[in-house]
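Technical note accompanying the year-one report. For the benefit of new consortium partners, we illustrate the data format agreed upon in the data management plan: each record pairs a sequence with a structure-token string. No post-processing was applied to the example shown here.
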Amino acid sequence: MIEIKHKATGAVLYRVEAPSLRGIVINGADLSGADLAQADLTGCRLSSCNLSEAVLTNARLDGCRMMNCVLKQVNFRRASLVGANLSDNVMHLADLTEVNASGAQFRHCKLSGATCAKGIFAKADFSFAEMHGNFNHADLNHANLYSCDLASSDFSHADLRESVMTEAKIQKADFTFAKMQGSTGTNGKPWGVATFSSAKKKPWWQVWGRSAAM
């Protein structure tokens, strides 16, 4: 049996009748403040759980699925989230510094205030997510940022090569020194290519003729 305890009080929050936490299934548990640092949660399934302020530093969550969970202020620093699915979760102020979340899914996540600096999010799917976070020096190569709210986010020095930002909101976002080669801008065109009006211009002689008549 494994006991999941509170990080500060040591109180037992949950007991697992299994030799390890790999592949566990937990539904509707209050795990707020849980100490899961360095835990191996590979392939776990957590549904409708509250993990607010939990500690998951250096934890292994590869291939895990967290559905409709509250992950506010969770400390994921240096955790492995390769191929994990964290879609539809509330992750305000979460700390994802230096995580490896290659190929992970964050669709429709609420990541406002999250710190994702130096994280690896190559080929991750953030479509429709609310971000407003710090992605300084993050690897977002080939990431899907379709229709994301990226307003006021910090992408300085980030690697956004081959990423997709079609229909994303980027007001006041910082892309200073970011790598943008091959990325798709908010207009669906290659980054930096403006969209012009499709209205046909009149031939120069018609414009001049009209001016002379006037």
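Partners are asked to follow this layout when depositing records. The first strand starts at residue 2 and ends at 5.
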